[in-house]
Design a protein that fits this description.
The chain is of the alpha+beta class. It folds into two domains: 5-76, no CATH class; 103-268, Vaccinia Virus protein VP39 (Rossmann fold). The chain is built from eight helices and 18 strands. It has helices at 8-19, 107-116, 131-136, 150-158, 164-167, 178-181, 209-218, 240-251, and strands spanning 5-7, 24-27, 38-42, 46-49, 52-55, 66-69, 74-76, 78-81, 84-89, 96-99, 102-103, 121-125, 142-147, 171-175, 190-195, 219-228, 255-259, 264-268. Helices cover 25% and strands 32% of the residues.
Amino acid sequence: MAYPILSSESLRMILNAIAEGKSEISVSFDLDFSAKKEKLKLSENGIIFNGKEVEVPKIRDDDKSCYLILEDVFEKVQYSSGGGVYKLIPTSFRPILQISGTSMHKQSFIERIEKDKLFGRILDSGTGLGYTAIAASKTASKIITIEIDEMVREIQKINPYSQELFDNKRVELVHGDLVEEIKKFRNMEFNFIILDGGTPRSSGEFFSQENYNQAFRVLKFGGRLYHYVPNYHTNRGVDFAARISSYLKKAGFKKVVRDEEGSYLVAWK
């Protein structure tokens, strides 16, 4: 993590302290990832950081964003790339990624991964903020996690809760397209597979029959595939999870169980 990162709530606290004439305030520089608070000296318009005055931007009461402290400016963690808008959103737990207004919030899916205590070698795609890979690494011996989106990879570097991706020796980060990368693996190489490919519109051939055939090939007998399924075009009567379930069965998976509330499937080989 190259720069301190603050939540919008921390910025509001700073602005209120300045308005009240206070000379300093203690805030988290890592979105409460650690229990540590940093003391900041206050000026009339902002904070004193590394000996320089940094003006604190005025934000709306309903603003939910994260802000980096750069050399002499606050920068919102909100970037445009490839026609999409990427934003890191603080929560009461850990921040979530929002892409073009859709929050990539998958707590139930991550909790299932933690509960099942996956072991051995695991293939994970796409990485996102890395919460699923980090959860699986607690019990597995090796995680190979693949992410194609360069902007997501950059936000991983900013987010304090993603840093274990870079520090954990059991986690191997791969920048690439699962559809191509999966062809490089041996038959029955993995004990478990975790798939989370965003939406069909932005994921190429991720949700294709051929990709599920490849997943079946590289998964060991008795292994399981965990698949997060986005709520894609449900307002148009599209049951995307049912479509994926049929692809998995056609690929050879003997049983596919759906968790509608958690928006995921589990398939057994």
